[in-house]
Amino acid sequence: MVAINPSDIAIIIIVALVLFVGSSKIPELFRSMGKALGEFKKGRMEAEMEINQMQNQPPASTYQSPQSNQQKAASPEDLEKQIKDLQKQLDEMKKQQKTQ
């Protein structure tokens, strides 16, 4: 049986690329493969950083929830006033967009 070396496989792949893809498309193909590899490395680094941050967080007993630092919930009247103000702002933005 014939043993196939990694260099033989590389030559076969290069010949197949030239035959099926064309010599003009090969640089574009490798460029897109390089971009994909770069994005993969970037994602891997972000995941590693996130894991490290999770490991460096203090234990749950000393962790304070964000809700304990916030004020009490607003009254219904305040919420209704905020909704009306936001609706007015939205209407004004729609009018400005129509005039443009």
TrEMBL record:
It is a single-pass membrane protein. The keyword Transport applies. The chain crosses the membrane at residues 6-23. It is found in: Cell membrane. Pfam families: TatA_B_E. Its main location: membrane. PANTHER family: SEC-INDEPENDENT PROTEIN TRANSLOCASE PROTEIN TATA (PTHR42982). This is Twin-arginine translocase TatA/TatE family subunit. It comes from Metallosphaera tengchongensis.
